[in-house]
Amino acid sequence: MSRLLLVRHATSAETRRSAFPATSGAERRAGCAPLDRTGVEAALALARKLPPADRCWTSLAVRSRQTAELLDLTPIPDPDLAECDFGSWAGRTPAEIDADDPEGLRAWWADPDSAPHGGEGLADVRRRAARVLARADRAGGTTIAVTHGGLIKAALLEVLGLPAAAAWRLDAAPASVTELHSTAGSWRLTRTNWSPALRGAEERSAPAEAAGAEAPAIRAAADHEAAGQEARDAPAREGQTPAPGTRVAARTIRTAGPRGAAAPGRDGSAARGGSAGRGGPAGRDGDPDPTAVPG
Description:
Elements: E1 2-8, H1 37-47, E2 55-58, H2 62-70, E3 76-77, H3 94-100, H4 102-110, H5 122-139, E4 141-147, H6 149-160, E5 177-183, E6 186-194, H7 196-209, H8 215-233
Parallel strand pairs: 1-4, 2-3, 2-4
Antiparallel strand pairs: 1-5, 5-6
Helix pairs in contact: 1-2, 3-4, 5-6
């Protein structure tokens, strides 16, 4: 069996702006933001929870390489693990782009495989994700890949056989783990969007769930409270999704809390109310999500 743990990099000051990443990690470039203090703490906390690995791959972005090093791993650079290249949108917020190119932004929301910014479309990122999956399967054992939100979502689309539009319904918080297992060349999803912080929330809810018939109502109230606390703390804070990542069967996605990214309307127009304001959908972690805008 082959085991692949996709770890999203921890937070940086750049990701907290809810902007498209200025650097994708396909190559070493100046201006790539390092982790912030919260990101460093989150990576160190995750390091104590990861299993031993036979190898570690990472994109060339500073935020990914720093995360891998804080996980006490020796990273091997792999440009296929880079975030989506957002071309002329790199480093800008959805609100800024909406002011200059609203039609381009709406076209991208309606079809994430498109690339009105002149960079990559989601289909391009999926092809890279497929190559990563194939290499991890051939390598065998346990591979930890420190990467980006868009690449993780693209990998999930590949494994679950989902259309591009489903990317708007997936979440990958900073310093979280998505785990995939492969047997005889067939990948299955075993865990998604897991982090020590979210695991703590899950364990605190366990006594209430043991109460029996009252558990669903208690859990719903807990989820509502967590979502409210998130909104009070900071509108663009990364990595603090209110509901724990859940173990799921292959080709099944189940979430316990509020949805993260907004989806485009039926007419392809922008959905309102995402954490990036009227500029477009964004994950609860504050990163715009290119699969909602990936991060």
